[in-house]
Amino acid sequence: MHLVVTHLMLTLYAKATTLMPSEKVPPCELPLWCVMPNPRDVEKVLEIVRHVPGSNVPSKRMRLGRRAWALLGRRLHEAQAAEARRAGVPEPDIGLACPLSSKAHAIVLQNWMGKIFLKDLGSAHGTFLSGVRLNPHEPFEWQAGTKALFADASTEFFELRAA
User: Fold this and answer.
1) What is the pLDDT of residues 96-121, one digit of tens each?
2) CA-to-CA distance for 71 and 94, rounded, in angstroms?
3) Where is the FHA domain positioned along the sequence (predicted)?
């Protein structure tokens, strides 16, 4: 019981990481509405929470902040990352632990009001919102309280929450 309460407290009080603005080139064409939001226009601050089933590790919380987009892709070891950079493969902003995920799996998009959208980049094993597989290359609104998975739910899943 004490371990569960401690885990819950760490999850609730762990500081969210805000992704810093980037000069990276997006891995796909962005919709016109995908922009850095002005904090005065944001209706609700949202954060992406990574959960690892069966783990004692606290959930990681991330915010896009003033980023218009962030790339999700398979985590690479240092040698793999160096090889990918040489080949021109974009490095993910949010690394996915699932070995079935693609190097450039999906992209998180943000509009001027801070609403979050998810777009699968044609991954082999899919991107899922609330258990429904997304059509590749189409942005779908990711609403607070909704879970997203990338290729396999047993490794990790992500939830969008109000901050």
Assistant:
1) 999 999 989 999 999 999 999 999 99
2) 6
3) 70-134
